[in-house]
Amino acid sequence: MAKLKRALGLKELTAYGVGIILGAGIYALIGHAAGIAGPAVWMSFLIGAVLASVTALSYIELGTLFPKNAAEFVYTWEAFKNKLFSFMIGFFTISIGVIASSVVALAFGGYLHGVTGIPIVLGSLGLVAFCGFLNFWGIEQSAKFNIVFTIVEVLGLLVIIILGAKFIGSVNYFEMPNGLTGVLSAAALIFFAYIGFEDMVNIAEEVKDPVKVLPKAFVLSILISSLIYILVALTAVSVIGWETLGTSSAPLADVAEAAMPGSGILLSIVALFATANTVLIILIVESRMMWGMARDKSLPKILSKIHKGRRTPWVAILLSTIIAGIFVLTSAITTIAQVTDLVVFLIFISVNVSLIALRYKKPNLKRPFKVPFNIGKFPVLPLLGILISIGLMTHLESVVYSYLGLIIVVGLFIYIIHEKTKS
Fold this sequence. Notes:
A hairpin with a 2-residue loop joins strand 1 (about 375) and strand 2 (about 380). The chain is about 70% helix and about 0% strand. It has 16 helices and 2 strands. The chain has a two-stranded antiparallel ribbon with strand order 1-2. The protein has a domain at about 10-90 and about 140-260 and about 330-415: Amino acid/polyamine transporter I (Up-down Bundle), CATH 1.20.1740.10.
């Protein structure tokens, strides 16, 4: 069976991590989060950073232990050997990729419409098609585009920080108009902005030396992204105030315009790169998840086909691109972001639980990296990740749980039909 090409080093993988984390979330959701948490919105980003960091350590241990694509599916299978449970976790990951890529593509279409007047849906579909082509073209080519896009979006956020530096100190950064509950609710919302670091393990089979590169790339990606997020949050509430920020449809563009008139259009252009970069990486990871599950016979075998010339999973890429295009009509970004976060929290819980279970079920496995702070065999930090995830889940809107129910029903239907087909 053909294998994927190992072409990514530390630089490329870190760029993937930073690129997917510093994507559409910060550009679209910081306004909504500030309206909930007030000037203390930076604390919401800090809480998100803690959860991301703690869970990242679990991903590093499991990712170096089982450096395979379809990571979450593999981890839960190795820990529990339950086909239905592992399938649902894998299906969750794919579902969230579809939803997130569609919403971000629409955000791109909105920014593009503001700059050029091109209809939002047309621009969104064009982006999905372009990213699908890059995904098929090859992981090396996609990585090169990703590095360029990542540099642009990081520079855009740095511009916000620099322009707003002179406003720092103008507000009370510990003011919480809705109390600690508001800060936690904002953290549950803006965690969408952190989603992506976990996806680095889903391209492990295209990394040159995953055992050495994965841990370093995880740490660098989260540290860089968290620092930038917190600085942007502090700057944004300093420049235009949390009330104004909370009602803005283009928050960072408004911050830039207020700090230096005429610079708002620049941030809109940067947002195009940021949202395009996010869609590209999500589609790459989503197609690899499909490919990995198909290779392990949990999805139809045709999805495991690899193009001989490009050495990319072309059928999975085609399907993920088509599905993203279909869902591009999705709206209500805050609700969809919360649905995404809810499912991600469940995935994080499953990953942390899998790590704890494997410490007891397979204690003698050679672990190139081991999560620190252990009491005997028991790892403390994964438990912290579980508790934080559960805590943030309780601060989401109740309507998102109905969407979760729908995702579960669809997943169960696909699982039952596929198992009957195999039989």
